[in-house]
């Protein structure tokens, strides 16, 4: 009977189900008696033809008469792969609004969660949509079904899947930054917010404030995943309708020609909040598009304001302190004592040198601690070399000097870190970094293989018996020890150095005096010179030229990111400076917005009761009644967030106004 039923529903043959009701009643069975959860109803919905399958209604009628209707509708797969998928999920996936309405009216669970392996984010073969029926409808762009589930089905849009993601999180996860995808998901994102706001007007649910298992809101998740298209839409979201206007993050204040001034809600964006959007973008080294994301308003103007107000001054102070440390470190290293360490202080100058050594070591400890928190390999290596050198010094090893001078050289190289304080030097340093970590590193890997391979081949060609070499060496020691060392042609290190000299045009052909087969040696030498001196070096030059051309347009964005990184934590340590006001003015000559439905002023400036010109424009009424801003930004005029007549001490901590096009 089971095979007959499944064959009938797969073909949409309602006649083939005749007698099924009597069979179930006589044998006291139900349509849900399936070991894997796959019912005839699921099979019927999977085989819709042009959105129809007559057996669906028949199955529902039979289940209703057998008292098994709710169990049949909400029956789900029990296998690990499709676990949790119900008939409602299938109807939505088949894009059948009629069947979705029918199932919901018959008692389908709109909060059922499909959490099998097929529906997980990292499934090799599967589709992650957030487990819930509403999320599936949203991700597959079915606005009619979304509206029905929220309005008629009373689906809880705040419900979270097993990863803590709401439907808004899912939209962020599935966004791919293409224009079509971003436009579709942005419209759906706004639809969810508006419907939730209208249906839950009297509740305190803040849909966009819900965090997933990673402690991320949808906005923060978009920042972390680099979903720049949807991220920009979320920041620039503005509703003109009075009822939905509180859902906006951007509020147009005034418009004049191509210029318009807007107020941005930057709650959860600025660094006064732990794990803020700015920190996620700046310190998320694996975040794609992070350079471009920092150019989006209000982030760009907020960072510029922070830099110009106090971050640049902190950066300069830090640079001067590092120079002082470097001078002390250099002085201690250059004027160190010779002999067997450690050296106890004997004269007053020795005490001064000890103070300098202590400062140098404490500085290394500080750099190492900072490098562990925010990975910086150059400073880490500098600190480790100095600390190891200190241990060797205290242990009485004279070899401490080698590590000391290496640390000193790195310390001076790290001065370039502060070049990011200057735009021109910073962009130049960015290009250097890209070439060193990219082109030069690849060149050295290939060149190292050639150098070692040809060195090994030439050492094998040397015809210099150890006894003869020993006699030559002993005879030469009395005359010139260095010359005797030069005759050690079996030394791999010496041979490698000689070949390196050939690479830079300083090779000595006398090196061939002791080879067995000079013809073979010449072939090796010619091949080596052609491959390294002619080919590799010229390829390196060409690659560097291409790198400069390729990143010339990106270097400014990269510099903007790099010169921001060292200041974000310092900014967060100064609570009274949070949300510094920022001025920005932009013009868009290609887009004229003259039909904005917002309240405007004749003049952004106004006069007080004494006739004095003020630079604090009146805020729109809704700002003080319907909008909660922790910080914001505006252009052209520096203002605070208090409405007229309100005590400034009771207003939001700060506000920043931005003007943009």
Which bin fits the share of residues in helices? 40-55%
Which shape, going by the Cα principal axes? elongated
Q: How would you name the CATH homologous superfamily of the largest domain?
A: Ankyrin repeat-containing domain
* Share of residues in strands: under 5%
Q: Which strands sit side by side, in order, in the main sheet? A: 1-2-5
What count of structural domains? 4
Indicate the CATH topology of the largest domain: Serine Threonine Protein Phosphatase 5, Tetratricopeptide repeat
Q: What would CATH call the class of the largest domain?
A: Mainly Alpha
Tally of extended strands? 5
Rg from Cα: 36 Å
Summarize the biggest pleated sheet. Answer: 3 strands, antiparallel
- Point out poorly predicted stretches: 466-487, 573-584, 594-661
- The span between the termini is 69 Å
Biased composition (Polar residues): 647-661
Membrane topology: Multi-pass membrane protein
InterPro entries: Ankyrin_rpt (IPR002110), Ankyrin_rpt-contain_sf (IPR036770), Ion_trans_dom (IPR005821), TRPV (IPR024862), TrpV1-4 (IPR008347)
Catalytic activity: Ca(2+)(in) = Ca(2+)(out)
